[in-house]
Amino acid sequence: MAYVSLDRRQQGFTIIELAIVTVIVGLLAGLAVPTYLGYLDKARITRCIAEIRYISRAIDSYKTAYDIYPNTLADAGAGDIVDPWGNPYEYLNIAALTLPGNGGGNGNGGGNGNGGGNSGAWQWILPNEAYAAAGGNASRGTPRKDRFLHPINSDYDLYSMGKDGESVEPLTARKSHDDIIRANDGSFVGLAAEF
Length: 195
Description:
Helix content is 31%, strand content 8%. It has helices spanning 2-10, 15-66, and strands at residues 90-92, 157-160, 180-183, 188-191.
């Protein structure tokens, strides 16, 4: 009889037992992986918010030192910083943008009211036409806009294009929902969908 019990110990697991264990391990992995990936996304967003605040401090330091905002992030010493998804941060110096006209942004087309073409009458300007890059920059940019299509900052835009690496001007567009933005002149830094 001792011989029979010795054989039972050497048999090992049956196929059914192995299948049950495999299903249990699969279920645990199916629950753990999405939770882990969600944690990684939150960690990347938190890192991005911290980096945007750091870059904002560098830009503000540049403004304090030179009395103008930098034209690029490289001018502020933050040009080589990339977001957690491997994309460079986007920056637009809104303070350097001017309205069309004779420098004053008065909307009268540069005329003085005496033969300037419109005799000083108010001229409506479309939002996309209202901003032109100053200083001869090759790239034209327009400020990021909220749901009412108003610019979200008055000094400069600084943001990450987020997980999908795509973005458009208005924050209400689907491509912009995952962007990490700086808004209200720095009083808000976070997901565009939460602004």
